[in-house]
Design goal:
- By secondary structure, the chain is of the alpha/beta class.
- It has one domain: P-loop containing nucleotide triphosphate hydrolases (Rossmann fold, 3-Layer(aba) Sandwich), CATH 3.40.50.
- Helix content is 50%, strand content 7%.
- The protein has a five-stranded parallel β-sheet with strand order 2-3-1-4-5, sandwiched between helices.
- Helix 4 runs antiparallel to helix 5 and helix 13 runs antiparallel to helix 14.
Length: 307
């Protein structure tokens, strides 16, 4: 059984909020581990599964150990069996399908923002594997999302090679990071185009981070209606009003915002032409205002190395 729906992103666009609220729904089953990363990263060898140092492999092994240790305290053997299958079984399409049990009265899904980076034939392969699945994609202003991601990225690097705060990141390194991100998680229009090529309009839910922040309950109800499950007040959890990642990055310097505006201006024009809603209009207006205040090559931009 393959998932009935997948949440593909965007990273730093509300996927933790989505997972937190969907896993509480009585008609939805989600894997006990968020972000399986099979559709974007594919199989892994036995050596990697046993000894690999990637975050994905380490999380899988830790989850297995935790489930085994929980048995004397009332843990379930079924949880251990799932963890064994996830952590140690050979990776294949059949293996991925085996991670989604058929539970009477429930639909199954996965939330993994890495999937938004899949392009071309790789999306076609997902469609061939599960042609009837539904796709959820949240968009966030590409002038704001990268800054939130930068905070996470440079914090994760650790105390030995980190900078302590974003304002201490060398301009050249920050510029390289933002340019790379433009072709990755922040390529919103590319992701929308790639997935809409294979999945029909009634299979795609495109939401907006701004909408989630402004009225999270209404956003969740729309997602539940899209999935075809109960969307009444009785199933809306108290966590709907709460962000699972409440931390906020420091205020973005105007020079960096102008640099991001230059990187994403063409994309923002396309996004607004595609969706033509208040959110995309505001994103485009904010980019053009940033460019007007700090044109590329101006003294302010050059001062931080982001001309």
């Amino acid at each position: 059984m393959y998932p009935d729906f997948i949440g593909i992103g965007a990273q730093k666009g509300g996927t933790s909020w989505l997972h937190t609220n969907l896993e509480k729904h009585p008609q939805i089953w989600l894997p006990p581990m968020k972000e399986l990363h099979y559709l974007d990263q594919g199989p892994a060898s036995l050596a990697k599964r046993l000894f690999g140092d990637s975050k994905r492999m380490r999380r899988g092994r830790k989850y297995l150990i935790d489930r085994i240790c929980a048995l004397p305290r009332g843990g379930r053997l079924s949880d251990v069996a799932w963890a064994l299958r996830y952590s140690l079984a050979p990776r294949s399409d059949a293996w991925y399908g085996s991670l989604f049990p058929e539970v009477p009265g429930k639909i199954a899904g996965e939330v993994c923002p890495g999937y938004a980076r899949i392009r071309g034939e790789a999306v076609g392969r997902v469609h061939r594997l599960m042609p009837n699945t539904k796709v959820i994609y949240f968009l966030r202003n590409p002038l704001d999302r990268p800054w939130s991601y930068a905070r996470q990225h440079f914090k994760i690097r650790g105390p030995n090679d980190g900078y302590g705060s974003l304002d201490k990141v060398p301009p050249a390194e920050m510029e390289a990071f933002l340019r790379k991100d433009r072709e990755g998680h922040s390529d919103l229009f590319g992701a929308v185009t790639a997935w809409e090529r294979y999945f029909a309009p009634n299979q795609m839910f495109i939401g907006f981070f701004d909408e989630m922040v402004m009225d999270p309950k209404a956003m969740l109800k729309r997602v539940l209606e899209f999935l075809g499950v109960d969307s009444s007040e009785d199933v809306i959890p108290a966590t709907v009003e709460r962000s699972p990642n409440p931390g906020r990055p420091p205020k973005m310097p105007p020079e960096i915002r102008a640099y991001l505006a230059g990187l994403h201006h063409d994309q923002l024009i396309k996004l607004h032409a595609r969706f033509d809603n208040p959110w995309t209009a505001a994103w485009l207006a904010s980019a053009e205002a940033a460019l007007a205040d700090h044109p590329p090559g101006s003294a302010g931009a050059s001062a931080v190395g982001l001309a």
